[in-house]
Amino acid sequence: MFLLFLLGILFFAYWYWKKNTKLKSIEIPTSKKEFNDKAKTINPLKAEIDWKHSKAHLELLKDFHFGRDIRDYQNANYWKAILKESPLITINKFISQGVLIPTTLNKKIEFHSTVNELKIMLRERGLKISGRKNELIARLIENNEQEMDDLYRIYEMYSWSEDVSIIVQNYIEEQKNIKQTTKNSVKKFLEKKDFKQAIKTVLEYESQDVFLQEPNKSMFNIRGDEEEILSFIFEAIPPIFNNIQLNDIHFIRVCTGMMYFFGENTVRKLLPKDFINGSHFSNDVVCRMFLFNARNLQKLKEYKKFGLKEIKVLGTNDDLTCSECKKISGKTYLIDNAPQFPYHACTCEMGCRCEPLPITDYR
Ligand SMILES: [Zn+2]
Question: Which residue, of 44, 52, 126, 315, has the fewest CB within 10 Å?
Answer without folding.
Answer: 126
